Amino acid sequence: MNILELVIDEEAELYGIDAISLVEQPAIESDFIAMNAQLLQFKTQDQEKRIVMGAALIPDKPIYRKNGEEEYYVYFSKKTVRRAMELYFKNGNQANATLEHEHTLNGLHVVESWIVEGEQDKSRMYGLEVPVGTWMVSMKVENDAIWEKFVKEGSVKGFSIEGYFANKYELAKATVKKDKRYKKGKRVDMESYSDYPDAVKNNAKRGIELNENQDNKCATQTGKVRAQQLANGEPISEETIKRMYSYLSRAGEYYDPNSTTECGTISYLLWGGKAGLRWAKSKLTELELLWAVEMELALEYLEERLSKEQGE
């Protein structure tokens, strides 16, 4: 069974940890990582102050996953665990909490965070035997209902992270030039491709979600269909890859990573965002088609410029 390392692709629109969830039973969701399989029962650090403590992320721990018929394991390195912690706070997510990855919670926030460095770690005082490199958190629970009905009664027993990570193998495959058009001396025509990384799928999913919040008013029908293809991991043709690269190359100026309502941003995500642009460029380079597409873009630009000058 394959073992894949998960990493943070910081060039993607969505990456790192968005929230920490209170959970009872281990479960792993597809694409959107809910690392309940790393479940380690937390402890009530301070009953009066309503603080619970536990492991948010454990390094080098194989975690079972199943995607359709495919079964495999994933894991995080110590380096990725530390970077995930840093980005979690950098992005101001310490007050983002959910219950069983389904219900957004108010009144919970992380008040303490650290990486276990050795055997004398604070976690040992509470009987938590975690390996070096583990990300530990202490969370204050000011939500009365959650404290009384879930924490005190033991309905939730541990932390689980929510976030987006890239498969290191797929990320590398999307950026390394490889000529797969020849096999045993003969050209093999590859009509469609689905080896784009998870970041492309996640961007499309995010675009779909944001568009739904806007009553699906953004993007053309083609863009909406394209997003569904990418979100589902469906194969796309060479012509579609050309259109993908062409659109994302031109539409980047309308993309605002801080906006969740602008149609320019939503449309850009529907086509795969920056991760989609990187992948499309890499794939066209691999197929020796990039020069032709860029020539077409240059001609379109010149025609538009000439048209504007004549109009003036």
Number of separate helices:
9
Shape: elongated
User: What are the segments in which pLDDT stays under 50 over at least 5 consecutive residues?
Assistant: 26-40, 173-190
Q: Give the termini separation.
A: 65 Å
SSE string, helix = H, strand = E? EEEEEEEHEEEEHEEHEEEHHEHHHH
- Overall strand count: 17
Mind explaining what this structure looks like?
- With 312 residues, this protein is of the alpha+beta class.
- The protein has nine helices and 17 strands.
- A five-stranded mixed beta sheet has the order 3-12-2-8-9, covered by helices on one side. The protein has a four-stranded mixed beta sheet with strand order 6-7-1-13.
- Helix 4 crosses helix 8 (273-286) and helix 6 (238-251) packs across helix 8.
What are the salient characteristics of this protein?
312 residues; alpha+beta; 5-stranded mixed β-sheet; 4-stranded mixed β-sheet; 9 helices; 17 strands; elongated
